[in-house]
Structures are given as C-alpha cells and as structure tokens.
C-alpha cells in the first residue's frame, strides 16, 4: 500500500487518503483479506490519461493480466468517479467505500 500511495502522490500532489480498511474478498475463493483505501485528488489530466497512469502503477507493482484468474492481486487501483461522473456505481455501494467517502468529507 505504501508503494501505491507514493506513486499516487507523485502524479497527484493534491491527493488525500482515508485510513486503510481490511475486507473479505467478494469473488475469490482465497480467504486472504484485502487492504483497501480511498483517496480523492484533483487533476487537469483527462480521464484516459489518469486511467493509463493508474494502470502503469499497477504494472510497476508487478501486476500481470493473468493475476485475477490466479486470485493474486498485488495492486488494484480503481477510478470510481471522474469529474463528478460515477464510473463504477456498484463499487460505490460497498460498505468500505461508503465509509471512506464519509471520511473524505
């Protein structure tokens, strides 16, 4: 998680993070918990540029395309909202996301 925060701070200096939250996997059979954290930042970059930067961070952390099939996720950075437009509405309903959004207010 430290690597992700450092990389995100480099690209988005205005970023603010919530506390980390441990959650059970939703679809994996592996019972290992996930560490989750929300953040908010402002940027002049467009949506595709931000998504590309996030994917590059995941790749730098060692993530491979086959990782989900292998139930191995070393780093997963999701862009839930961009420019006030919800990109992942189902994710916004998750308890840890709702809690994190409250923390960011």
UniProtKB/TrEMBL annotation:
EC number in record: 2.7.6.3
Pfam families, A to Z: HPPK
SUPFAM superfamilies with a match to the protein in the record: 6-hydroxymethyl-7,8-dihydropterin pyrophosphokinase, HPPK (SSF55083)
Record-level GO BP terms: folic acid biosynthetic process; tetrahydrofolate biosynthetic process
Pathway: Cofactor biosynthesis; tetrahydrofolate biosynthesis; 2-amino-4-hydroxy-6-hydroxymethyl-7,8-dihydropteridine diphosphate from 7,8-dihydroneopterin triphosphate: step 4/4
Domain 7,8-dihydro-6-hydroxymethylpterin-pyrophosphokinase: 14-104
GO function terms (MF aspect): 2-amino-4-hydroxy-6-hydroxymethyldihydropteridine diphosphokinase activity; ATP binding; kinase activity
Keywords per UniProt: ATP-binding, Folate biosynthesis, Kinase, Nucleotide-binding, Transferase
Gene3D superfamilies xref list: 7,8-Dihydro-6-hydroxymethylpterin-pyrophosphokinase HPPK (3.30.70.560)
Classification via PANTHER family: 2-AMINO-4-HYDROXY-6-HYDROXYMETHYLDIHYDROPTERIDINE PYROPHOSPHOKINASE
Protein's name in the database: 2-amino-4-hydroxy-6-hydroxymethyldihydropteridine diphosphokinase
Source organism: gut metagenome
């Amino acid at each position: 998680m430290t690597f992700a925060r450092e990389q995100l701070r480099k690209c988005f200096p205005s970023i603010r993070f919530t506390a980390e939250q441990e959650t059970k996997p939703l679809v994996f059979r592996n019972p290992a918990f996930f560490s989750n954290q929300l953040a908010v930042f402002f940027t002049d970059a467009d949506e595709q540029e931000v998504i590309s930067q996030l994917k590059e961070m995941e790749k730098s952390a060692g993530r491979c395309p086959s990782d989900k099939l292998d139930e191995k996720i070393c780093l997963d950075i999701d862009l839930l909202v961009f420019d006030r437009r919800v990109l992942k509405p189902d994710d916004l309903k998750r308890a840890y996301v709702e809690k994190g959004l409250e923390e960011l207010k």
